[in-house]
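Quick one:
INPUT:
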């Protein structure tokens, strides 16, 4: 067996464990059944969930047996961890639809073949049929209220208030661990460090009800230097669903991370070897302009999440925008996604304005006079063709897919024009 604990520690993926030495011994002794839960509180998983999914994959690659739990029951409640206010509850129909979508997403990151095949389970299968009386008698009696109040996530919410619904969430998650322990011999639960109270609640419940000794492992929260979570932008989360975050935007998010963060992110997300990652860190430090680490990270993660064909399309679009490929050969949806990431102007179909007007309106030039100077100096491009005259006007034949124009000033400044029906 691979010494997976050492591997996870090198990658910075171990924040807390219940007992590292006994966990290490259990993992070294033979296949361990483990689980991680994903609640359907949105229609898609996001980059924060990807840390857990890939940690599960690393454990599976090391010879262990994964259970991916999609919380059809806990998703109806909502985990209070990391939240300062009550979560808005969603209907059973909405949550049920999200369960199916998230099952599909989870399944892309694990192997369901061979000796160490994964399973996807839904906690609604056991929580749904249970009566409130049975839940209180069989589960609730094992939870002293004073210990529940001491949990960090609960204590942080006491001043502003926490409902009994969210207060009870830790019991539901603990019951999941107990149920998976009984059904499949599961002895390890993983999750983010903000889940630590919920993870240890399950460990305690199994000890109290069966006398069994099980383990919990928490990964650190992945944060930027300013303390904000990775995967969050001004526009919201970075989703794994291509309809919510396009593959182009996903690629660009990773390609634009700071040099100082590249090593940490490669360790967290990449399946490259230690030697390859250390070499990419060295290249990033010595030649930051080449962005070797960022490119490797963006390509690997986009391929992993969206597939090699989408990644190739994104790379082709990125190159074409900067004059290194054919804009005409790009698929319409890929081009539209790329333009969504640059300054963009919408104009009605009909007589298009002169290029000087468009350069100024997109912000590529501060004024029309500056636009004229840029054209005179040979630094303005329409669809990657140098604009030769300051009175040039795009025609209908210039429109890509009948509705797009690409403006560029110099090598790196891009703007887009989207033509719409008036």
């Amino acid at each position: 067996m691979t010494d997976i604990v050492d591997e996870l520690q090198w990658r910075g993926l171990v924040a807390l464990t219940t007992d590292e030495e006994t966990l290490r011994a259990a993992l070294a002794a033979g296949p361990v059944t483990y689980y991680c839960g994903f609640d359907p509180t949105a229609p898609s998983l996001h980059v924060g969930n990807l840390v857990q999914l890939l940690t599960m994959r690393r454990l599976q690659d090391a010879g262990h047996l994964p259970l991916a739990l999609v919380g059809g029951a806990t998703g109806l409640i909502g985990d209070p961890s990391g939240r300062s206010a009550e979560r808005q509850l969603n209907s059973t129909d909405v949550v049920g639809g999200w369960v199916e979508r998230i099952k599909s997403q989870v399944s892309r990151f694990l192997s369901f073949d061979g000796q160490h095949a994964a399973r996807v389970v839904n906690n609604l299968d056991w929580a749904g049929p249970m009566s409130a009386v049975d839940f209180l008698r069989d589960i609730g009696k094992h939870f002293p209220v004073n210990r529940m109040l001491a949990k960090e996530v609960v204590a942080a919410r006491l001043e502003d208030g926490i409902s009994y619904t969210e207060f009870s969430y830790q019991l539901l998650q603990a019951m999941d661990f107990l149920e998976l322990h009984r059904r499949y011999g599961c002895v390890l639960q993983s999750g983010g460090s903000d889940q630590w109270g919920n993870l240890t609640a399950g460990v305690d419940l199994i000890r109290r009800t069966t006398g069994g000794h099980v383990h919990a492992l928490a990964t650190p929260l992945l944060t930027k230097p300013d303390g904000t979570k990775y995967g969050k932008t001004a526009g919201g989360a970075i989703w794994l669903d291509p309809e919510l975050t396009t593959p182009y935007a996903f690629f660009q998010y990773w390609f634009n991370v700071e040099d100082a963060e590249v090593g940490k992110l490669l360790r967290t997300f990449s399946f490259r070897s230690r030697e390859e990652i250390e070499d990419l860190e060295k290249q990033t430090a010595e030649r930051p302009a080449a962005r070797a680490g960022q490119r490797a990270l963006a390509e690997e993660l986009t391929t992993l999440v969206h597939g090699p064909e989408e990644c190739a399309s994104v790379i082709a679009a990125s190159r074409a925008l900067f004059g290194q490929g054919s804009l005409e050969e790009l698929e319409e949806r890929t081009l539209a996604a790329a333009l969504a990431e640059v300054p963009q102007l919408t104009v009605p179909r009909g007589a298009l304005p002169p290029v000087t007007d468009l350069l100024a309106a997109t912000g590529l030039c501060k004024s029309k006079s500056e636009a004229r100077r840029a054209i005179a100096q040979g630094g303005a491009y329409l669809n990657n063709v140098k604009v030769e005259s300051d009175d040039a006007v795009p025609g209908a034949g210039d429109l890509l897919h009948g509705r797009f124009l690409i403006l560029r000033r110099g090598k790196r400044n891009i703007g887009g024009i989207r033509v719409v029906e008036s």
